[in-house]
């Protein structure tokens, strides 16, 4: 093997190590405890009966014990499942592989989805930065994120939802790489967008697991529209520059700009008339309709396909002889919507969405106390998505910092008095990456903040935020380490001002210490993430905040 071939092989060691850490934290002692925990009582049992009937059926009791014949003790009566079927089909794959009486059967599909999400985040980290270091750091941060670890070790739907949201975001980014910075004819309407089609399918799968998967679809369609508008404006400015003989707008007279009804393209190097701006907005609106026409049918088809078992088998909930299945399905969905919009039963672990970024009220999923046979004074086994403080809190800070940096750079780019020479004609990779990760984060958080129709919402819904907070923190740590962001369109972006060699070395040491501390915290918190029997004092030592108890 040549030297370059060996170097390429070594480049895989980092991602492989990160995936190894993710797999250990998700698969180690996965069958513990050997009983259903929290909402596994609903989703796992629905998955088992759905595999058997094509739709979920009723179980005779609410006992979480799944030993012996209880693992297949479902009846033939249809159950009123209030979430779409895809997540339960995926959980059912693990049941088919390892059996319905084993925790491996209930949880293995979700654990595998968790590891796959880490891989997707590393790929996104690479695409956003073209830096293997930033990609591996993003994956590592998600791998040791306590919220993500716990939600991919239990047979719930949210870990699966997170995978498809991350996949959809990945495809949206790839769609953007086809236009950002490469120059498009601003009058052109683009129909061939295979990555947007794939994004629609991925978000459709997310919605087929939980309806909240529709939120990222809406947010990223808006993101794609804004991105398209800015790309068309850049193209219109370039066209104006070419028409004006390459004379920058900043050197033209203000009288010319005012007299022509034009606005100096501050930081753009040319003038765009009002008529041109109006035409650009019109074309962008048409392109947005085309984007919706590409993504929404794909999402709808994937969503509908997830109901195939209910459609083919006539005995499911809401099926009435003589009523066509589309009508019955519409009525079923109306009932589901009513249930979700009015869920207000009090719960000790319900938490306001404003507390989610800092994980102030984690949703405890399992807790057992005993003293007989305990080697300590008292023993506890618990499963609670307590955050890895450095990752969760650091990610929230990173999102804010990136947003501020991006806004400042946009303001700087639009102020012709603050820079000299030709204006930037391609977008700043840091601004684009920051906008992308903030959009992803807000898509999983802001709709819940604005939801007033139900009070029963929980911290574990925030697992869909974890890929984007990990990306944000990795990007910020990369900037602090002096790693420039490079884009597929050839642009390059880094921290300003550049640090000296000694200061840069100190920053990199600090970042290394931060990452090492995050891994150590993951090791210390893993016992209470995984239901490991521990001394009660050890468990209480992890309850740092009042809401963590």
- Rounded average pLDDT: 88
Placed side by side, the strands forming the largest sheet appear as 3-4-7
Proportion of helical residues: 55-70%
Radius of gyration using CA atoms only = 26 Å
Element-level helix/strand string? HHHHHHHHHHHEEHHHEEHHHEEHEH
In angstroms, what separates the terminal alpha carbons? 56 Å
Give the overall silhouette.
Answer: globular
Number of strands: 7
Describe this structure in words.
With 549 residues, the protein is mainly α. It is built from 19 helices and seven strands. Strand 3 and strand 4 form a beta hairpin. Helix 16 (429-449) runs antiparallel to helix 17. The protein starts with a helix and ends in a 9-residue tail after the last helix.
Walk me through the topology.
Blueprint: H1 3-10, H2 13-27, H3 40-53, H4 86-98, H5 103-129, H6 132-143, H7 146-151, H8 158-177, H9 194-207, H10 214-243, H11 254-259, E1 262-264, E2 271-273, H12 274-305, H13 308-312, H14 325-341, E3 366-370, E4 379-383, H15 389-413, H16 429-449, H17 466-480, E5 485-486, E6 492-493, H18 501-530, E7 534-535, H19 536-540
Antiparallel strand pairs: 1-2, 3-4, 4-7, 5-6
Helix pairs in contact: 2-5, 2-6, 3-4, 4-5, 5-6, 5-8, 5-17, 6-17, 8-9, 8-10, 9-12, 10-12, 10-16, 15-16, 15-17, 16-17
